[in-house]
């Protein structure tokens, strides 16, 4: 619980070296709440999926009397599976994502031999910049933050911004931009947009990759990012950022859970059921 914001936040990590954050934000008066970037446990070695983590969050929701109004994604993640459909089935709340998801679906559909009909009804809400969602006395405002992916959005609630992968902790910097539709120059603009917010605003990240010697973190202030973001702090030009990001991305391997993640997340969390059995395709 962060005392200076009228909300409750749930954070959890799933991997020792790749800390993934999922958030529950609630209005303390009405108990209306939103879930952001939920995670379905998945073990690729055995091909097994589990709702253990999601179930613990569901128990927390029920124990505290929260009324979840929305299940939101900052983008279609390529490194973990969303639990959005599990929560939708349990809570009845709509699933929302940035309207740019259609571009991502078109880009990756052929890779997995998915026709446009495979994406029908995947999401209930396609959100655009400046859209607003009500949570009791709170307002959740959508920020379009493309660059990492074209569908990427953030959610502003009070003085808190839930950024997904549009920015990382200052000593980590920025996310890759080499997925279809990604663009380093566009990500630079999105990061500068975040750093143009009031200096006291808090930026809650979707991941952390802590360097040796520090614990995983989930939040920094705009002022801290302006002063210390290792890739895009004040004084770093767009040209410098694009050169670094492009050079760095050229040597990165693909995320370990890329294929199962995309086949699930592009469909709003629906697991593949082709040929009457669950299974993921791995392109050659």
Automatic annotation (TrEMBL):
Sorted alphabetically, which SUPFAM superfamilies does this protein's record hold?
Metallo-hydrolase/oxidoreductase (SSF56281)
Q: Which GO terms describe its molecular function?
A: metal ion binding; sulfur dioxygenase activity
Q: Which UniProt keywords apply?
A: Metal-binding
Top-level taxon of the source organism: Eukaryota
Any coiled-coil regions, as ranges: none
Does the keyword field hold Magnesium?
Answer: no
Question: GO annotations under biological process?
Answer: glutathione metabolic process; hydrogen sulfide metabolic process
InterPro entries registered for this protein in UniProt: Metallo-B-lactamas (IPR001279), Mito_Persulfide_Diox (IPR051682), POD-like_MBL-fold (IPR044528), RibonucZ/Hydroxyglut_hydro (IPR036866)
Residue span, Metallo-beta-lactamase domain: 19-207
The record's annotation in CDD domains points to: POD-like_MBL-fold
UniProt entry tagged with the keyword Secreted? no
The entry's protein name is Lactamase-B domain-containing protein
Q: Which organism is it from?
A: Mycena chlorophos (Agaric fungus)
């Amino acid at each position: 619980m962060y005392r200076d914001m009228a909300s409750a936040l749930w954070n959890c990590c799933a991997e020792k070296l790749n800390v993934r954050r999922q958030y529950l934000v609630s209005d303390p008066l009405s108990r209306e709440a939103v879930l952001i970037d939920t995670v379905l446990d998945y073990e690729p070695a055995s091909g097994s999926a589990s709702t253990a983590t999601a179930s613990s969050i569901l128990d927390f929701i029920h124990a505290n009397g929260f009324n979840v109004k929305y299940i939101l994604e900052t983008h279609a993640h390529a490194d973990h599976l969303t639990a959005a459909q599990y929560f939708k089935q349990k809570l009845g709340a709509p699933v929302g994502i940035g309207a740019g998801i259609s571009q991502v679906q078109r880009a990756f559909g052929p890779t997995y031999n998915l026709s446009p009909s495979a994406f029908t009804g995947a999401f209930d809400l396609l959100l655009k910049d400046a859209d607003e969602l009500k949570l009791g006395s709170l307002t959740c405002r959508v920020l379009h933050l493309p660059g990492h992916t074209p569908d990427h959005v953030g959610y502003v609630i009070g003085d808190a911004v839930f950024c997904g992968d549009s920015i990382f902790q200052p000593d980590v910097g920025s996310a890759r931009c080499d997925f279809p539709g990604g663009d380093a120059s566009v990500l630079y603009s999105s990061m500068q947009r975040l750093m143009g917010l009031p200096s006291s605003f808090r930026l809650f990240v979707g991941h952390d990759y802590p360097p040796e010697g520090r614990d995983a973190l989930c939040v920094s202030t705009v002022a801290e990012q302006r002063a210390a973001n290792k890739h895009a702090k004040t004084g770093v030009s767009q040209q410098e950022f694009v050169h670094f990001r492009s050079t760095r991305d050229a040597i990165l391997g693909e995320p370990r859970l890329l294929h199962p993640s995309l086949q699930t997340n592009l469909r709003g969390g629906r697991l593949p059921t082709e040929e009457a059995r669950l299974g993921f395709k791995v392109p050659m």
